């Protein structure tokens, strides 16, 4: 391949998936009815017996003292195959920082229904580790399956949980027998005890069984010359012969034809969608403001850390930009549980015009684990200390009410007089001194189908200025909701059960797909897990609104780092960057995420940063990313509803139906590197004259540099979609099907 062709291919891969995270299968292994994909990183994926998936992933892992995953290098790879068995051998070396560890891996598949993987390794240096050995990922479809767990104390019976479990379903494992899919799968572990956790807590699309119980202290110091030997053996039996002649599925293959059934009657309210305020030096350029208006968002979210000198400037900038955009806004306050600091913050918030719609408050550092959580889930789960303390939320509510009352008294006007002093943009401050809640917000140009993608519709704050309920509305004086939850993942909120949180007006947590893995397939597989996480959160919080504070490609903090220094290091901006942010894959993932959240009834969610390398466009608005085109189209239906689309694997094809007053749009987004064929079933709709086009999301950089207002079209010229026609989805691309409602 010539240099020019290489550069062209690299540029194309960067545009499609950021040029990173694509782990390809090297070979399909097959022994009788047992199949597995051997991946280029040395792991096994999609281990199946016939059509039944036994394991999603079986792989060796080395996790450092901050739970970071070390990258291994595969060498000396050899395959040996005959009629009844397959054997793969290779060396795997981990090098980086203080880590130097090497091992020999042997994989065997037998037509008798056996799969095994063994490790024989040695530390070539001293280093700290939290985990070293094998991990097994059970597919989400295992939920509800019966399990017979063998422990040092005997047999324990249980099930994989349906809703997301805050604790670990199985512990101290020597073996486990799983009854699912008409099969009995017996898994045996050698070299260590294993433990199963519900990895859906972090929106992973799996249950994970891993080596070394978490009850044991970590990190562990490995000594130079120390040896590690482990083995996992899987035996499958189909005594009833129920799978004889069953269709085998080409796991990971793009050849299978899928069907997308667009439902007419199954509809859901869309969450109020917002975005995060990035670090700013002054207001963003006019081009950025214009592109943000196009998104049809409902709110802007600002994070302010009270220990930093710029916190007051941050919240003032949020109020100013929200007013400019015609949006409501919310604050995330990170503070010590100190009345003096919170009182100062409350006074500053009372002076804001307009006032924030809601505030989520979180501790700056780890607080003590609630006793019930510590006893129930064990001291190892220290990350649940990063949730909002009830006393902290109640204190902030009281201080906000006092500050609002003081502001009104100091201004010498009552709330009725203040209501007559609207701002020049149409936002009513509700107080002469800016100490009240927003009474009216003018929201940009009216979108098609009654949506508010930037339009002139005026709503009262009691309608949330975003078309959603506002919960209990916070204190009677301030009118600001105060809520809490987890700064990190759902896991932390899930482990702090009621009655903790009863003082909150809403509960929230953050979502990111890369806590445990960063390859494209694993990121895509988090999408269906988002749905069950939201369902669990809503069920556990009873009638309290549940919100997603931040949805990002990478985590904004790592509560599992060793010590507070590690947590703060994880929050550095450089650790949040992902080259896939500006790719087509990110747009597909966004579409899949909104579909999951809408179906489960999440009240609101904030996606990405507004602009910059973590946002919808670059810092000057010269290049709008594909996520901008996707969110813009979704925003046009803010006043509409989401439709159920059945028949697809949501980890391979993201599907979101949108219905407004006059039109229906169905987004189909390919999350894979394969070309996929999808049969579009519109049989529930009366003779729809549907058109299909490919979503485009890039602006013309040359035009932007010249200051031109024209932008590239978001979609290609459309073509007619024939009834019961198949659509070919190109890798990582999004397609738009549109017809009249």
From TrEMBL:
Residues 650-735 form the D-apionate lactonase C-terminal domain. The lineage of its organism: Bacteria, Bacillati, Bacillota, Bacilli, Bacillales. Residues 274-367, 479-635 form the D-apionate lactonase TIM barrel domain. Residues 416-437, 704-725 are annotated as: Disordered. Residues 416-431 have a biased composition (Low complexity). Pfam families: Apionate_lact_C, Apionate_lact_M, Apionate_lact_N. This is Uncharacterized protein. Transmembrane segments: none annotated. Residues 20-238 form the D-apionate lactonase N-terminal domain.
